[in-house]
Amino acid sequence: MTNKLAPFSVALLFSLSLAALAQTDAAKPNVFRVGTINIQQAIYASNEGRRDFEALGKKFEPKEAELKGLSSELDSLKKQLDTQQDKLNDESRGKLVKLIEARQKSLERATQDAQEDFQTQRGELVSKILTKMAPVIQKYFNDNGYSLLLDTSQPWPQGPVIMAGPTTDITQQIVEAYNTVSGVPTPTAGASPAKPAKPATNKPAPSAAPTKQ
Known about the structure:
Elements: H1 2-23, E1 34-37, H2 39-45, H3 47-59, H4 61-84, H5 90-143, E2 148-151, H6 171-182
Parallel strand pairs: 1-2
Helix pairs in contact: 2-5, 2-6, 3-5, 4-5, 5-6
């Protein structure tokens, strides 16, 4: 038990030490100053991010509608099988089951393809904005005398930061500075970026067992 807790204790003490150093910065100039930033939030909250990710969501709206239509068709076929299976002979029931299985595989494949395409294009947008935002972060870091900047986009233990107070966070300052540099105006209010729909029903189709006589 002690061995498992040791890394956590060391990391916690280190985090608290950094927070203490940051809090004493105002009273002692030229000390080790620590800042935190949620880079992912900064990218999405910037005017350029809001504009581009909303546009990406709208781009995928037709595909989302298509997937919802396929899902509704699949649900309809499954309902048909549930309500009519006692009236169907073995051959008709078997054909309907095979049709349901084919439609479900098609829907799952189309959904996976759409999600992968969406994630790829979203990743490209993130990379593009981050590349342009990096110099803004660097300038703010240098101008304000920071010694260390930690990203809080991922919560601990996936990310490096266990705890951080709001006084160390510079995310909003970076967003405002980047908006000025990018020159992108504030987008009009709109819907949040859409995500490709997942199949409404992922249950396997019933087997084509003979009906009871």
